[in-house]
Amino acid sequence: MYLVWIHLITWMVILVTTIIALFSQSRKLSLISMMITRVGYLFAIVTGVLLVSHAFPNHPALTIINGYFRNRFNWNH
């Protein structure tokens, strides 16, 4: 369960830092926000892989369908 929370909080941090990077007037603040976002992507990828490894043995069909729709509609981007 802790992986789900880490994953969700990471995506919230990515959202906030992306907004700060896009709308900031300060170049330095934008660069810091972009770096935090990049590190957040690493956490999101790692926790996502760990979540899939836990979900697949219990619900393989749902995990495959979820992966298909994420790739089909670019929900990860």
Could you characterize what this model shows?
88% of the residues lie in helices and 0% in strands. The protein has 77 residues and is mostly helical. Helix 1 (2-23) runs antiparallel to helix 2 and helix 2 (27-58) packs antiparallel against helix 3. The longest helix has 32 residues, at 27-58.
Briefly summarize what is shown.
By secondary structure, the protein is mainly α.
List strands and helices in order, with pairings.
Elements: H1 2-23, H2 27-58, H3 60-73
Helix pairs in contact: 1-2, 2-3
Structure keywords:
77 residues; mainly alpha; elongated
Rg result: 15 Å
Helix and strand run: HHH
Overall number of strands: 0
Count of alpha and pi helical runs:
3
Overall, the morphology is elongated
Q: Give the biggest sheet.
A: none
Task: Please identify the structural class as seen in this structure.
Answer: mainly alpha
Strand content: under 5%
Cα separation of the termini: 24 Å
Mean pLDDT: 86
Helix share of residues? over 70%
pLDDT < 50 runs, ≥5 residues? none
